[in-house]
Amino acid sequence: MTTQVLGVSERSLRLAKQYIDAGDVVAFHTETVYGLGADARSDAAVKHIFELKGRPQNNPLIVHVHREFDITSLVDFIPPYAELLAKAYLPGPLTMVYPSSNKVSGLVSCGLNTLAVRVPSSETAQAFLRAVDIPIAAPSANLSKHISPVTAQHVFEDFSGRIPLILDGGKCEGGIESTVLDCTGETPLILRAGLVTQEMIASVAGSCGVYVPKEGEQPRSPGMAYKHYAPKCRTAFFSPEELERAKALYLEEEERGGVPCFFCEDALIRSLDGFRALDLGSSGEEMANRLYELLHRGEEEATLLIGICPKERGGVYEGVLNRLTRAFGG
User: Fold this and answer.
1) Which of 29, 75, 231, 278 has CB atoms 3.0–4.6 Å from 124's, for a disulfide?
2) Record: fold of 4-210
3) Strand 114-118's sheet: what is its strand order?
4) Fold held by 234-327
């Protein structure tokens, strides 16, 4: 199979629809990361996503729809606070989980009685979703547990020869996956932190909790696996207070002939003169934007990536810390 990488045009959208209608998989740009999309109504098409990614069968997918799509055709109930949140933040990087009306393949939700729905703001995604005009199940377009893709080239490196088409919309500006919000209860509950923060949700809905997963339970949202978003090179993870230990590990790796590299926020870079370092930036939004691009670069250039946890908490930092912790396995 030849994998075409095409920008949005009448021809590429026509091709995308043909592939989706035939039960195949198409990768497409969103404002967060690239998605690996297939017909959410088809068991065979959804199963193909899991097979391509090597994704665990108990890890639910998100259904993507265009902004004019009638979400009530897919879910049983939308609470009033979810309607307010949709008006405030959709289209955008917010996924909301509702009671499912079982109109899509049961494989999408991995046997759960809920459905995660997202309306991306990317014009590439919107053009694709309008062209197919059906619910599209789409996880991130990377091999399971590998770094999420924020460029078409990242997708191509994982799936060249395995999918027919990548719709190239350029680099994803958001940089980390959408916030996933459980809207099945009286108040919203964050299942996965992202660019739409707890503070932003509470300002509209009145309150917002954060779900703490129980050991051994089935994931209620994508991205809840312990080791996830991970580079292929070796990794280590330290707190800012452990910087001297981290430097010692760096020097040990160099002595062995390896290529170590720090992975940290801008405020620490000045403390690392003479050490290789990838600069995550100085704000939560900047870190989110740079995170996966720098992880891809790090796995190409280093034998050991040494992550230093950011000091700040709250807001977008929570989503960044979520991804860092899973990427570095710490």
Assistant:
1) 29
2) DHBP synthase (3.90.870)
3) 4-6, 165-167, 26-28, 35-39, 136-137, 62-64, 114-118, 94-99, 179-182, 189-192, 209-210
4) Rossmann fold (3.40.50)
